[in-house]
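Interim report, section 4.2 (structural modelling).
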Amino acid sequence: MNIFRLAGDMTHLASVLVLLLKIHTIKSCAGISLKTQELYALVFATRYLDLFTDYISLYNTLMKLIFLVSSFSIVWYIRHHKIVRRSYDKDQDTFRHYFLVLPCFLLALVINEKFTVKEIMWTFSLYLEAVAILPQLVLLQRTRNIDNLTGQYVFLLGAYRSLYILNWIYRYFTEPHYVHWITWISGLVQTLLYADFFYYYFQSWKNNVKLELPA
Amino acid sequence: SQEPSTKDEL
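Predicted structure of the assembly:
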């Protein structure tokens, strides 16, 4: 464990807590893409298959449980909670996210480190996570006024993977034979997808104006 | 063999 990875995990945890805070306290999911939340639940479900088979550390197991429980409960909240579901804008959240699942799965079948079920599911979860934010970014461009919590949620979600990139660089230089191209490239693609969001988020913070993404 | 793979990451 290094400081970049710990910072990354804490940033990721913060993004989930911000989202749960928004949904649970103000009982609203306005501006939040259910599709991205469903993709993230699938990412964690396919990535943490080794939750009960490979014990790495208490921290690792605890965090996996937190991410699994929180992502599935967020999907449940938006779909079934009688008040929250009313604020879900399904006419705007129209990204066909199923079109992301199949290509990621096919790619995982072709490009992976080992052709085993667990490895392919793990690789699938990496590719899927790289593109999971797309429905949310599209929704942000459609919803004119982005509220602070939603903006902070997306920012933290993008920031966590950038910190992971620093972690991979650190591990590359400190651990012999630490090379994982699949992880690195999908993590880089994921972070690059946030590039323009980061730009507008920073501009709104610098000029102290409301965050708006150009259509 | 507990080789330090990325699998120890979240």
